[in-house]
Amino acid sequence: MLVTKRLRLRPMLLGDASSLFNVWSDAETTKYMDIEPLTSLHQAEEMISFFIVLTQRGKGHHFTLVTEDSKDIIGTCGFHEWNHDHHRAEIGYELSRDYWGHGYMKEALLVLLHTGFHQYDLKRIEAKIDPHNHRSRYLLESLGFQKEGVLRSYEELKGRRVDLELYSLLKEEFTLSLKKILNIVFYPISQHERIKGF
Q: Which residue numbers delimit the N-acetyltransferase domain (predicted)?
């Protein structure tokens, strides 16, 4: 389990299905994900089972995000496309729309990245995002990720071919910018102040 000021990142459980269904069934939240909005609890259970197996096989590691105060489940984040030989992995994440703009995902990814680099011995962490996903772009850049280029016509998304932007963060870059990132992440956010990302 990973802990931040406002969140707990714990391994996914099948018992999370009802709460995560509320996240994954929202059309706006899943707009840039490679899934259609879920329509049944069983689909949520299948997704969770997939991530659990991925972790068991050493191909990824996914966490459920739980608020420290209210114990609400508000999303997930984690690693996939894990290449142990080359010490790299890709991150993925989604957050309940009710919690957008308050820095929750930035807080979660900060501890996830730190764990990836310093506990899992990753040297490079990647992220692929839709060019129109401005919230994700702002989030990644605020954490020090650099855009490497555009993967043209990279995948099928909801019946159409789409480009994806490739971002990456290296261990040495994260270490150098950690103090600056910490100052941003843990700066108090007032009730009326919202940020551009997640």
A: 7-171
